[in-house]
TrEMBL record:
PANTHER family: GNAT FAMILY, PUTATIVE (AFU_ORTHOLOGUE AFUA_3G00765)-RELATED-RELATED, N-ACETYLTRANSFERASE DOMAIN-CONTAINING PROTEIN. It comes from Paraburkholderia graminis (strain ATCC 700544 / DSM 17151 / LMG 18924 / NCIMB 13744 / C4D1M). Residues 10-170 form the N-acetyltransferase domain. Keywords: Transferase. GO terms for molecular function: acyltransferase activity, transferring groups other than amino-acyl groups. It comes from the Bacteria. This is GCN5-related N-acetyltransferase.
Length: 170
């Protein structure tokens, strides 16, 4: 089971199917998904993809968390994940996606820090990875703020990605 996390500004709750419409709306913004491959232009496939990713299955303590404001629980601020890479593994990946209204405010770093601490302190993972489009400078900055270190380039979904990784140190 996934825990709930509270940070100074945020509440992270395990994502449920009730969050689907907000995730779909966020993904419809082409600036939000410009660095991520997915079925964004096909409404039926997009919904099926989000629902499948929400339901998993994932190892205990892993999955997607919906990010909400502590001041307004109705305020959807995106999600953060901790799952086997591409939902198959064997590496464990951390990732995040936020609507534009939440960009540049430190929300991704704050939310991902809570999940990364859980990965090391509770799940006892030795390493967590993030694969990021090299043009996605904002996500690269988040990875570096989290203490992840560039470990080279990989090909994911037919394109070059930058791999960041962190050894347990939190």
């Amino acid at each position: 089971m996934q825990p709930v996390f509270e940070t100074p500004r945020l509440i992270l709750r395990p994502r449920t199917l009730a969050d689907t419409d907000e995730c779909l709306a966020m993904d419809r913004d082409p600036l939000v998904t410009r660095f991520v491959d997915g079925p964004w232009s096909d409404a039926r496939k997009h919904r099926a993809f989000v629902e499948a990713r929400t339901l998993g299955p994932y190892p205990a303590g892993m999955g997607y968390w919906t990010i909400r404001s502590r001041n307004d629980a109705a305020d959807f601020l995106g999600w953060v994940l901790l799952i086997p890479a591409d939902a198959v593994g064997p590496e464990i990946e951390i990732g995040w996606r936020l609507p534009r209204k939440a960009w540049g405010s430190g929300i991704a770093t704050e939310a991902a820090t809570a999940v990364l601490q859980h990965a090391f302190a509770t799940l006892r993972l030795a390493e967590v990875v993030a694969e990021i489009d090299p043009l996605n400078l904002a996500s690269i900055r988040v990875a570096e703020k989290l203490g992840l270190v560039r470990r080279g380039d990989v090909v994911g979904h037919g394109r070059k990605m930058v791999r960041y990784a962190s050894m347990e140190k939190l």
